[in-house]
Design goal:
The complex is a heterodimer of chains A (306) and B (108). By secondary structure, chain A is an alpha+beta fold. Chain A contains 9 helices and 16 strands. Chain B is globular, with a radius of gyration of 13 Å. Chain B has one domain. The chains are: A alpha+beta (306), B alpha+beta (108).
Chain lengths: 306, 108
């Protein structure tokens, strides 16, 4: 069963009562919320995702709720709960859906240690994975959205899940998070993209989520072997420039972008070393999306060392 | 001072916890016991390899001699052949390694 198979009312009821066991790639999250805004965000962004049976194991039990405090009468808030506990400060109620997304990112990056998790977008073409490691604000998600609507399969906008022994990247297709100027840039360039509601004045500025392409969600069980590591950097109006990055620098970039590299110790070092060995590594500066997409169309797969 | 430095010995602190990789004259070294990873240039990387390959404690002069491919170049008479800039650089690398927990200094 898919999220899209629920009516609006039945989805809201499920979320408000027992919760919805949402399957995103290798992760099942049981989500509870009585906030219609969050339920509608799930309906829009996760329409193609499958729903696990209530009897199935859920990796996480999360909720987005209104905290019981005096502010609920003045300036309503929402809080993200994991196993009934809240580790984060409440946020204004209109940030309900982003709160869910940020909370789910935290759940995966803090708990899924069967993977080596890198802060990176991942896309795939011809069975080869393109890894875009970058800090926030570097244009990673903007480029990721542009490629996801230009023939590349989306594996993840935010978290690269690397299987440390096998070396492949496991897909976690979830909504793409765009901020500020990148919202209009993607909206005007890719009319097929489905946008949620823009939420203003968040800690990151204006934020909007884009529904992951349906094909990427349907193919979520297909991993991909890393072929390219590209560190992107957005510079307004800059000409697209793809230049080789020394492998040792690429290795350090991945190490510094990883959430749980230290958890994996030597295995983590070996896994990232193998990834760097088999991938072509680049730095990429861009200022215009269509130009950037053309550069990636010409990217040739390296000889993959299995 | 220089004489003291020449009599100090150096060895890898825990060779069994050092992993390293070299790509195009740059090295990435992982110190498992500290969960730290460092990027090394060609000079520091080659010094690391000298120390990892050696089963004995080495003086600064020994390290230099092996690194430049002339392990027979030992003894006080030969030390004067080490250019001052190289000696200073090697000392700086070893001090950095010590700070990072890669090597241990054994006083003269």
């Amino acid at each position: 069963m898919r999220v899209a198979d629920f009516t609006q009312n039945s989805l809201r009821r499920r979320l408000a009562r027992d919760g919805l066991r949402l399957r995103t790639g290798p992760v099942v999250a049981n989500i509870r919320t009585s906030l219609d805004m969050v339920a509608d965000g799930i309906a829009l962004h996760y329409a193609e995702h499958s729903v696990a049976k209530e009897s199935e194991f859920a990796d996480f039990h999360v909720a987005v709720e209104r905290p019981r405090n005096l502010r609920q009468w003045i300036a309503p808030q929402v809080v993200f709960r994991f196993d009934g506990l809240s580790s984060f400060a409440p946020l204004p109620v209109d940030q309900g859906f982003p709160t869910l997304e940020w909370g789910l990112n935290w759940c995966v990056s803090s708990h899924c240690h069967q993977f080596l998790i890198v802060h990176a977008a991942v896309l795939e073409r011809g069975g080869h994975a393109l890894i875009l490691p970058a800090p926030s604000g570097s244009g990673k998600s903007t480029l990721c959205a542009a490629l996801a609507f230009s023939g590349w399969r989306l594996l993840s906008d935010e978290l690269a899940l690397l299987a440390p022994e096998q070396g492949h990247v496991v897909a976690l297709p979830r909504p793409i998070s765009l901020k500020n100027e990148s919202i209009d840039a993607v909206r005007s360039s890719f009319p097929a993209a489905i946008f949620g509601r823009t939420v203003r004045e968040t800690i990151k500025g204006s934020v909007v989520h884009v529904r992951p392409p349906a094909d990427s969600v349907r193919r979520a069980a297909q991993p991909a072997m890393p072929a390219w590591v590209v560190a992107p950097s957005f510079l307004p109006d800059a000409e697209a420039c793809l230049e080789p990055m020394p492998k040792a620098r690429a290795m350090m970039c991945l190490v510094e972008s990883a959430f749980n590299y230290n958890v994996h110790g030597r295995v983590g070092f070996a896994a990232l070393s193998r990834l760097v060995d088999q991938a072509d590594c680049y730095r990429f500066t861009y200022g215009r999306l269509h130009e950037a997409v053309r550069v990636f169309e010409r990217l040739e797969a390296p000889g993959i060392v299995q | 001072m220089e004489d003291v430095l020449s009599r100090e010995h150096w060895r890898i602190s825990e060779p069994e916890v050092i992993d390293w990789r070299e790509w195009s004259d740059e090295f990435v070294v992982h110190v498992t016991s500290r969960s730290e990873t460092h990027l090394l240039g060609a000079a520091a990387g080659s010094i690391l390899l000298v120390l990892l390959d050696s089963r004995e404690m080495l003086t600064l002069d020994d390290i230099y001699a092996i690194a430049v491919g002339n392990p027979e170049m030992t003894g006080a008479a030969q030390r004067s052949r080490i250019p001052a800039a190289d000696r200073e650089r090697l000392q700086a690398i070893l001090t950095d390694f010590e700070r990072l927990g890669i090597v241990t200094r054994i006083a003269a």
